[in-house]
Amino acid sequence: MTxxxxxxxxxxxxxxxxxxxxLVSKDDISYEGILLDRSEDAKDAYIVIKLDSGYNVGVNxxxxxxxxxxxxxxxxxxxxxxxxxxxxxxxxxxxxxxxGTVSSIIDYKxxxxxxxxxxxxxxxxxPELLDIANYDVKALYNVLSENMETEYWVKAxxxxxxxxxxxxxxxxIAHGTDTMHYTSAALSxxxxxxxxxxxxxxxxxxxxxxxxxxxxxxxxVGAAKSDIAEVTVCMHNSLNDGDxxxxxxxxxxxxHTSRRDTFRSINSEPIALLSDGKLKSINLPxxxxxxxxxxxxTNLETKVALIKSFPxxxxxxxxxxxxxxxxxxxxxxxxxxxxxDYMVETLQRANDEGIPVxxxxxxxxxxxxMNVYSTGRLLQDAGAISGLDMTPETAYVKLAWALGQxxxxxxxxxxxxxNIAGELNESSSLKxxxx
Amino acid sequence: MTxxxxxxxxxxxxxxxxxxxxLVSKDDISYEGILLDRSEDAKDAYIVIKLDSGYNVGVNxxxxxxxxxxxxxxxxxxxxxxxxxxxxxxxxxxxxxxxGTVSSIIDYKxxxxxxxxxxxxxxxxxPELLDIANYDVKALYNVLSENMETEYWVKAxxxxxxxxxxxxxxxxIAHGTDTMHYTSAALSxxxxxxxxxxxxxxxxxxxxxxxxxxxxxxxxVGAAKSDIAEVTVCMHNSLNDGDxxxxxxxxxxxxHTSRRDTFRSINSEPIALLSDGKLKSINLPxxxxxxxxxxxxTNLETKVALIKSFPxxxxxxxxxxxxxxxxxxxxxxxxxxxxxDYMVETLQRANDEGIPVxxxxxxxxxxxxMNVYSTGRLLQDAGAISGLDMTPETAYVKLAWALGQxxxxxxxxxxxxxNIAGELNESSSLKxxxx
Lengths: 435, 435
What we know:
Chains A, B: InterPro entries: AsnA_fam, Asp/glu_Ase-like_sf, Asparaginase/glutaminase-like, Asparaginase/glutaminase_AS2, Asparaginase_C, GatD, GatD_N, GatD_N_sf. Chains A, B: This is Glutamyl-tRNA(Gln) amidotransferase subunit D. Chains A, B: Residues 17-69 form the GatD N-terminal domain. Chains A, B: One of its GO terms (biological process) is regulation of translational fidelity. The structure is a homodimer. Chain A has an eight-stranded mixed beta sheet, sandwiched between helices. Chain A has a five-stranded antiparallel beta sheet with strand order 4-3-2-1-5. Chain A has three domains: 5-70, SH3 type barrels; 92-296, L-asparaginase, N-terminal domain (Rossmann fold), CATH 3.40.50.1170; 304-416, 3-Layer(aba) Sandwich (Rossmann fold). By secondary structure, chain A is α/β, with parallel strands linked by helices. The relative contact order of chain A is 0.09. Chain A starts with a helix and ends in a 19-residue tail after the last helix. Chain A has eleven helices and 21 strands.
């Protein structure tokens, strides 16, 4: 274990080792949970506890007391870490980890928090996975997804393309949930893929002590073996550990801070449901395995901003972004795609300077239509581009990608309003609401 | 009618008068619908057509052609505009119009677009309303709600208080839908009320030619007569013209750009359902008529901004707002309430300068919890205030109001985290998701 010096002494005194259930008290707060190993570079005076809620907390042991509640079990597994021979009858699935709760959950089962996520960690934790595929696993980076930056999208896309070139039959990406839908949209625009690319993670909602990671990963591997050669998000479909939903990467959004079924298709429905690692039902047409050749296009303009409108917003905020050299703006407007009409002049300025402004709606559901009200018509006259039925998040990613393809305003407008990766429905359906 | 000169000549030539069904063609576009009167100050060369979708379009008649399809009916009503005597057996309901689609719909039925909305317009359009109450009606202002500014909230609150002081048994506010939920939150914080204050409007979704205004107003009057003395939003509960839902003013949000049941309770459920102008079911406890005395508190700090986080956001945007003299910020973060951790320093700056930063989530559903992940803890250490289970929009309004009560950071923090008007649930329930 990586505990040493102060923290090792603190643990040894209480006869506590990794995997034990402990109670740590400090000031007015107590934490009960399982002692985890921690990363190599963690500060010495901290220990990491996995709470029953499933979340990890780091506790500074200064002036803390510790009590052993119960010695821990050894990991209950069949697989003990030996090198696995590939079985030529099984699909080769590449698992790429990027950090986030899902990795820590996997580590939880093995009783260790490693900054580097290995095939052995994964398989030790989830030996059932060995039955359904061969694996190549790599840790691409290790960030909480709220810290994800646009450059990570490029790295992930390149890594996926490498694996496909190396013969992977499908890709599973383990990712934090906060910005999973931004990444899924980015990979959707950046990669034309002959094989499934499935992003999954863990939400570990505090309402249930058990983890959702295993079901999500198991079904994500199932989806990666399937015929659905698109970029998708595979997560719980309900509060129960039943089905997983496979969402189109450009039509999905995190909609609840803690529920395990937080990811929902917006203005669409899941392409498929999975159960026990197998497709259970298909709801939408999809691109089939091998239909597309691999094509990578990671050009991206990162000087793009997403701005939310509200009563009291001022034109200054648009001017600020123009003055700062932003190349494109996505507005999260109200209703059918509105900004206060006193903002029209500054939108016109953006247009005159060749800066595309894409309008989306804070309603999230439904489509932009700037033809209905006078305000919308004014905004259109000033150059605002309808984001149609894209979420603000997908429109943001798409604008960054579109500006990577062209800096010509008319061309960017055309890209925004052309379906590239399933992000635009041909006809908007009212039925996709809160489903 | 207010058409004159060019437009009158254009209409006269085709023997068209207000209320007639016409086809206007221009360039490659044709509009078929009912000719409406237009406002006094409209430009001469425009005519206004009510499309079958329910929406109004203004068409510049230059180089347009017009065809009469069918002469219009006279308004089919029993009430012809005479002064109505108040019936002492009926409740006195005050109807305040602020503009938006709902007013134009009412006008549609009377066949005229008046900039000033009168009791006569309303009752001529909806004579059924006469059966259930006496009315005082006033046009407070006439703006599309995307153009609503914070000062309008103050005017509306003052107008409501006047009417309550004048003996109104209930208030109905007709409002545009784009920012209805911002106004409902503002009035919730500004007014303690002994009588119901019900905000309603019309969505006029393009999927159905018929208007939703009448059902909404009729049930809003029903709610205004009820025992529920809170600020509420009364709108369609489904796509059908069946029930209306009565939402808590601080727990509601427009969730679809065009559906008539667009308003949904977030992290809550409607207080009640109404049908045929009567309460049909009660879901939540509520403040009863007369329980509160009228108290008006319209102090508001308008220098507050709502900022959405996204991968690639930079600290500059926070610094910009601090430098511009903003007094408070609401962040629409990711997940449980996160910003990239490189933003922590600038949040600390805001805190050091006494500027409250309230964290909300772009998930919308669920509650903020900055104790779970390291990023959240860093943000809290830098002074970020949890918006708990408030929507970003309600948190924005509440922060503006809180800063109107105090400029002391600790006091503002306390107000934000104290339930004032039903905006905070005592315990967050996972069950309120997409309902």
